Amino acid sequence: MNTIWLKIAAAAVAIVIAIIVVGRFTSSDKPEPGPTKSEPPAKTRTFDQTVERDKKLNEAPKLVEQPAESPAPQPEAQPAQQPAPKPVAETPAQQLANRPAGVVYPSDIKGPTTLYFKPMSEEDDIQAQQILPYATAGRSIGRLPMGVSYGLMNKACLQIEERWPDSWYCFRAKQMLEEITTYQDRYAQMYKITPQRIDISRFMKRRPGTEARQVEPIGR
Questions:
Q1: Are 137 and 145 spatial neighbours (Cβ–Cβ below 8 Å)?
Q2: Is residue 17 part of a domain?
Q3: Is residue 177 included in any domain, yes or no?
Q4: CA angle, corner 183, sides to 181 and 187, nearest 5?
Q5: Which residue range forms the structural domain that includes residue 60?
Q6: Using the 8-state DSSP alphabet, how is residue 144 labeled?
Q7: Residues 109, 75: contact at Cβ < 8 Å?
Q8: pLDDT higher for 121 or 218?
Q9: Burial of 170 (0-12, 13-18, 19+ CB in 10 A)
Q10: Quick one: which of 212, 131, 140, 196 has its CA closest to 169?
Q11: Pick from 123, 214, 141, 130: nearest CA to 171
C-alpha cells in the first residue's frame, strides 16, 4: 500500500516539474516587458518652442558698426501685383497678398539683415521693455487650443507702433502681427492688419539719427 502511495506522489511531483519547465520555455519566447522610450508629447515640444521664440522676440537686435560707403544688402521689395478689376472691395487678407509697390514684410527677411532704428531715451526704453512682453505673452495665449484671441497682443503692438514707430520694438510688433495673419485670414480683418501696418521698408534705409542693428528671421 505504501509503495502505491509513493508512486502516486512521485508521479504528481514529476507532473508539477514538467509544468514548470514547459512554462519557463514558453515564457522565454516572449520578450520581457522593459522600459519604453516615449516621445515627449507634441504639446510640450510646442510649448518649449514657443518659449524660445518669445525669448528671441523680446531680445534687442545686435548693434552693427557699418561704414557709410558700404551699405549692407537689403531684402528687395516685392513688385506690385496688378490686381484684376473686382466688383467688390478686397478683404484685408487679399490686401496683404496684393501688396502695394515698395512694401516690404518682415517675412521677406531670409537671413541676417541690417536695419536702421532710432535709439530711444532711457525712460522710453524702460516703458517699451514693459509693454513688449505683453505682446509676446498675448501671442502665446492666442495660440492656445482653447480659441483665445490675440487681443492682448494686438493692443500691446498698437501701443508700441503709436509711441515708438522708429524703434526696433516696432519692428518686433510688425513681425508678430504679420505672423498671425498666416494662421487665419480673419485675423487681418479683426485687428486691422494692413500692408502699410506691417511694412518695414522705412527701417531698410539709413536716416538721420538712426543706428544699424542686425536682425534675423524668426521661424514660426
A1: no
A2: no
A3: yes
A4: 45
A5: 48-64+91-215
A6: S
A7: yes
A8: 121
A9: buried
A10: 131
A11: 214
pLDDT in tens, 28-38: 444 444 443 44
> Residue 71 — very low, low, confident or very high, per pLDDT cuts 50/70/90?
low
Total tally of structural domains belonging to the chain: 1
Give residue-wise pLDDT tens across range 73-111.
566 655 656 665 555 667 777 888 888 899 999 999 999
How far from 153 is each of 58, 161, 214, CA to CA, in Å? 13, 12, 24
Residue 26, pLDDT score? 45
Return the SS3 of 34. Answer: coil
Identify the pLDDT of residue 92.
74
Classify residue 40: in a domain, yes or no: no
CA gap 181, 193 in Å, rounded: 8
- The runs of H, that is alpha helices, within the chain are 2-28, 42-58, 92-97, 122-142, 151-163, 168-181, 186-190
> Is there a contact between 78 and 70 (Cβ–Cβ < 8 Å)?
no
Burial of 172 (0-12, 13-18, 19+ CB in 10 A): buried
pTM confidence score: 0.66
Nearest to 120 by CA among 108, 131, 111: 131
The more confidently predicted of residues 200 and 19 is 200
For residue 189, is pLDDT > 80? yes
DSSP 204: G
Q: Is residue 12 assigned to a domain?
A: no
